[in-house]
Amino acid sequence: MASLKSSPAWKALEAHREKTAGLHMRDLFAGDEDRFEAMSVGLGGLFLDYSKNRASAETYALLVDLAREADVEGWRGRLAAGEEINATEGRPALHMALRDPGGPGDNVEIIAARKAMERICRDIRDANMTGATGKPFEAVVHIGAGGSHLGPAMVVGALEAYRDGPDIHFVCNVDGAQIAQILDGLVPETTLFIIASKSFTTEETLTNARTARSWMTESLGYDAATHFIAVTANAGAAKDFGIGEDSVIALSEGVAGRFSVWSGVGLVAALAVGWENFAALLSGAHDMDRHFLGAPLDSNMPVILGLIGIWNIDFLGAEALAVLPYDEGLALLPNYLRQLEMESNGKSIGRDGTVLEAGGAPIVFGEPGTVGQHAFYQAIHQGRRLIASDFIVPLRTHHPIGGGDHHQRLLANAFAQSEALMKGRDNGGQPPHKAFAGNRPSNTILMDRVDPFTLGQLIALYEHKVFVQAVIWGINPFDQWGVELGKELAAAILPEVLGRAASGDHDSSTRGLIARARKAEQEKQP
Ligand code: F6P
């Protein structure tokens, strides 16, 4: 690939950065009454205000040149056409097909899986599919890891107001404390387990699945395979685990875990809120897909969000992105987006095998707004490191509790924070620690309210943002080879920790740690 940093568009942006280094956003706003109108874009229930960035109309024009030069338009076409753009795994990236209503020429395998998922969802909710003793399922335990966990967990939390299905629990940690606590409160006869694992080899997930299976067998006195559903691309392994064919929802190899909430991985969310609401989530995402594929680059919401990110990361040096939802239901959104951004673009080798010259995912972190305000906003306002922020703010609440003003207070806090970050405040004779430099970049994404459709739009917005950035940086965002080494070493170390193998060829630190773990285990024995 031609050098990114020596491309004309990149060089123009570098020159522009030098020229505008002294610019303060306060002046940009003061000099342009229409800045908010000019630097915002809406789509259905979603509205992106990107005016509070250290960027002028010229900056955006140059960024769009960069997108054009990187052939974002061509790549989005290749993505949509199902080309094998995930080259290191020889796969396409089919997340858009998962929410496409379907039609001639569409992915037959994906459509069949969606139908199976809908059938299972309706059967369980209507009690046509029951436990071994004929009782309806009252609790569902979703066992998964990473993308097979975070998506549905985030969606179930976000759509809390729409829930009318069974009780939902999530198990993702191999730490037995988690599953032990959950199983403790459950009735086996009315409990259903969903084992979500694309590979069906993830150690944490399989360990938890086996524990669930033994708990069920021991409690009921017989093997209740009908209490298990698998969502996987490895049907053979699910069968070996003892899950019947009718209870397996196929996952496509062409969908990476962090892009899979739209597939059977989302079954637990569909069970929680009903198929119609889940279908609305898919429609919202499909709406964003159409916008992404069709809108010109300079008014394309995911493209704009991606380009601002590149400006902040590569030209202004913002190494971190704070995701700040002003909504309790979106509490898991920062974690979800952390995986999406950091597992997709947290890479230093490009798709052509060479070392990246620029970019790579920012460090993503965050909390619901007013919780974070009392914890880490200090560093965003006055810290030495530049942190970019995304405020995500629903205008309407599902919880107008007691006729009170909670929501208005929430809104006031959100808007105040982004204003403070932008404007800052001179110390005006006060001691220096009271000064706020301001000029700290943020985007604000308004949602009419957190409903299934708008949530689908929001998630797809970030998926495409990550893709746009990957294209420009020259990254394949759909593989995740960086997780492999740790997995391999854990498999090698486990027998040593269990005392079934002699110490392997480790460094003195790892050897010492394993030895201490063995000693603690032996001392525990009577
Ligand atoms: O270890 C990382 C990862 O491969 C993620 O990409 C994925 O979402 C997660 O593990 C779970 O994988 P699986 O669905 O195969 O169990």
Report a brief summary of the structure.
The chain has 526 residues and is of the alpha/beta class. The chain has 21 helices and eleven strands.
Question: What's the structural blueprint in terms of helices and strands?
Answer:
Blueprint: H1 8-19, H2 25-30, H3 35-38, E1 40-43, E2 46-49, H4 57-69, H5 72-80, H6 95-98, H7 108-125, E3 139-143, H8 147-158, E4 167-171, H9 176-184, E5 191-196, H10 203-220, E6 228-232, H11 235-241, E7 248-250, H12 267-273, H13 275-294, H14 301-315, E8 320-325, H15 333-345, E9 363-366, H16 369-373, H17 377-382, E10 387-394, H18 406-423, E11 442-447, H19 452-473, H20 484-497, H21 508-524
Parallel strand pairs: 3-4, 3-5, 5-6, 6-7, 8-9, 8-10, 10-11
Antiparallel strand pairs: 1-2, 2-11
Describe the protein:
The protein has 526 residues and is an alpha/beta fold. It is built from 21 helices and eleven strands. It has helices spanning 8-19, 25-30, 35-38, 57-69, 72-80, 95-98, 108-125, 147-158, 176-184, 203-220, 235-241, 267-273, 275-294, 301-315, 333-345, 369-373, 377-382, 406-423, 452-473, 484-497, 508-524, and strands at residues 40-43, 46-49, 139-143, 167-171, 191-196, 228-232, 248-250, 320-325, 363-366, 387-394, 442-447. The strands form two sheets. It has a six-stranded mixed beta sheet with strand order 1-2-11-10-8-9, sandwiched between helices. Helix 18 (406-423) links the parallel strand 10 and strand 11. Helix 8 (147-158) packs antiparallel against helix 15 (333-345). The longest helix is centred in the C-terminal third of the chain and has 22 residues, at 452-473. The protein binds 6-O-phosphono-beta-D-fructofuranose (F6P). 6-O-phosphono-beta-D-fructofuranose binds next to helix 8.
